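Field reference: sequence -> structure
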Amino acid sequence: MGEALVPAFAGLAFLYLLVPVAYTIAFSFNDAGKSNLVWRGFTLDAWRNPCGAPQVCEAFANSLRVGVASTLVATALGTLLAVALVRFRFRGRPLVNLLIFLPMSTPEVVLGAALLAQFLSLRVQLGFTTVVIAHVMFCISFVVVTVKARVASLDPALEEAAADLYATPWHAFWRVTFPLLLPGIAAAALLAFSLSFDDFIITNFNSGSFTTFPKFVYVSAARGIPPQANVISSFMFVLALVLVVVFQVVSSVRAGRRQRG
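Structure field:
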């Protein structure tokens, strides 16, 4: 009996998590008219014209721009910081390790308000640049934690062997360390992009009139999110699911080749 209850509860929890996703996908096919709060009938109009709602594609493009920019910066800085924290000993290292976790543990309202106060005191105009800076601030912590785990699992003897073969530290990093770190870096980049793309609280504090996709959804929620927004959300969910499946398949194939080798 107990063995059957655990899968049953796990299945119920999984279904509960998928309810909002199912609602989003279903209402992307709704013949909404002026409001998308009540089901009015099945239609493919929103999928044929996903940019039909005013500003929806502009907001989506803004979120993509912010996500890509903040991911590139956070991944580059976070990877270098993770390597430094694991492989090198320097004064203040324990303090840096502690500070890395602060953006992760600080409530987003506090972090967003603090960044807004700094931008206002420096008289920085709110917009794309301030949003990217804010997103890098909290994304870099997740990148460091993810890449640190990968760096800690690497055998330092590999780099020592490269040095014995007269490789410079720079060549040893790019030819040996970086390829081994690449799966962890890719996972950290995907995590950073997803966190940046769907962030609302910090973005709302520091964006001014600049509109991202989560802000568009929030403003539209009172009259019902337009089905075009549901189309874009459904597309992003399917894309993320495909990327996860592809990554798992590639990892399994590589693991199988290593075992056979």
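Note: The first helix runs from residue 2 to 27.
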